[in-house]
């Protein structure tokens, strides 16, 4: 009885915390349907007196349509997600299943690169991208986005949790590393792959700093940069910004809903063995 009461208290506490976490999102959606005079009205009116779709229509059909930013972000995020998931899995297989001298030391050195702040790399990347001719193109965001240290770490930990005897049996049957990787390890790693794909998509979809530094032309802008259209010379169009933000979270919600059942399983599996 005492255990049930404790679980009930935990459930209630989580519900309360969850409610406060989604409160800003509720305000965002509510504001997107309000008139400008109602935005900072106090006390807050969660349900607009007069629901208007003007701001949502302006986001897609206005002078600078959000559609181009949406398509740019989808292009970059999807290419980076697929590429980073595959390359991270390939590198993780090497670190977890192929024995070579200094493997663990090399892996620790690779992980240590996570301690380097990404802002430190802006100038070297700017010089490099300018030299090879990809500055002010989407390749300046796509190429670095194909490689993620966290992805290699996540997949390596998951592969380490798979019994070594499985791959040894495959070697005995005459399978090589590539066949084992594609036909054995990847099918077993679906939870970790889905988890990495969701996380990587979110990273690239929300990437503001790299887009700000490496993109100049408006027709190349991504969704985070497109939000600047609502910051006017003398004021800020909060209604339009909230409408654009509401539209901006839809792809992330869809990706999460599709792969949510794998997230806990993937992270738990990756933490089983270090």
From TrEMBL:
Domain ABC transmembrane type-1 as annotated: residue spans: 70-259
Transmembrane segment boundaries: 7-29, 67-93, 105-127, 139-159, 180-199, 238-258
One Pfam family matching this protein: BPD_transp_1
SUPFAM superfamilies the UniProt entry points to: MetI-like
KW ATP-binding (keyword) present: no
Family annotation (InterPro entries): MetI-like, MetI-like_sf
Keywords, ordered alphabetically: Cell membrane, Membrane, Transmembrane, Transmembrane helix, Transport
Protein localization: Cell membrane
Keyword field contains Transmembrane helix: yes
Lipid bilayer topology: Multi-pass membrane protein
Predominant subcellular localization, coarse grouping: membrane
Family (UniProt): Belongs to the binding-protein-dependent transport system permease family.
The protein's name in its UniProt record: Carbohydrate ABC transporter permease
